[in-house]
UniProtKB/TrEMBL annotation:
The keyword Phosphoprotein does not apply. This is Transporter. Keywords: Molybdenum. SUPFAM superfamilies: MOP-like. The keyword Cell division does not apply.
């Protein structure tokens, strides 16, 4: 796989929960860190994502926002 994004985090899929149109996929990237991605159900099917499989969380963002009250 070649990709321009520099933040690729390899891990194991721990959970795939499909909703009406969108799925939440949890990837354990090690050290107790879980990354959750919201993707379409169609993408889950096309990528054949399943618990126990290996996947990459690819982060491509110019900004990260954090807020508190």
């Amino acid at each position: 796989m070649k990709i321009s994004a520099r933040n690729t985090l390899k891990g194991k899929i721990t959970e795939v929960v499909k909703g009406a149109t969108t799925a939440h996929v949890k990837i354990d990237i090690g050290g107790g860190t879980i990354v959750t991605a919201s993707i379409t159900n169609a993408a889950v099917d096309e990528l054949k994502l399943a618990v126990g499989g290996t996947a990459y969380a690819v982060v491509k963002a110019s900004d990260v926002m954090v807020a508190v009250d």
